[in-house]
Amino acid sequence: MSYAGFMWECACGQLEHGEDSPEECMKCGKINSFVKLPEELIEEREREFTEEELELDSVREVKKQMQKRKAMKKAKMQKTQLNNNKKKGRKR
Ligand SMILES: [Zn+2]
Q1: CA 47 – ligand 1 centroid, Å
Q2: Taking the model in full, what pTM does it have?
Q3: Best CA proximity match to 17, nearest among 25, 8, 28
Q4: Can you give the residue ranges of every domain in the chain?
Q5: What span, in angstroms and rounded, lies between the C-alpha atoms of 4 and 21?
Q6: What is the 21 CA–ligand 1 centroid distance (Å)?
Q7: Per-residue pLDDT tens for 32-86?
Q8: What is the spatial distance between Cα 70 and Cα 77, in angstroms, rounded to a whole number?
Q9: How far apart are CA 89 and CA 84, in angstroms?
């Protein structure tokens, strides 16, 4: 995604996109504390962001798989229980 304007960074590390410097920091509340980041730095940061997002995605994927495996295990256990109940029923 492309955006117009520049990237600004507050002393606290908060980043904002925009044509003009943000007046107030949403994170720490400081006024006029934003400095313009050079474009090379923006690209670097954006790359970092995408890598972080990818990492998040993979974590989410692993969690999903774990949940699936848990659900399968549960279903299997329920099936065995059902079979056991059936066997008991035949014996009677
Ligand atoms: Zn701040």
Answers
A1: 22
A2: 0.43
A3: 8
A4: 6-91
A5: 13
A6: 12
A7: 999 998 877 667 777 777 777 777 778 788 888 888 988 988 898 888 888 887 7
A8: 11
A9: 9
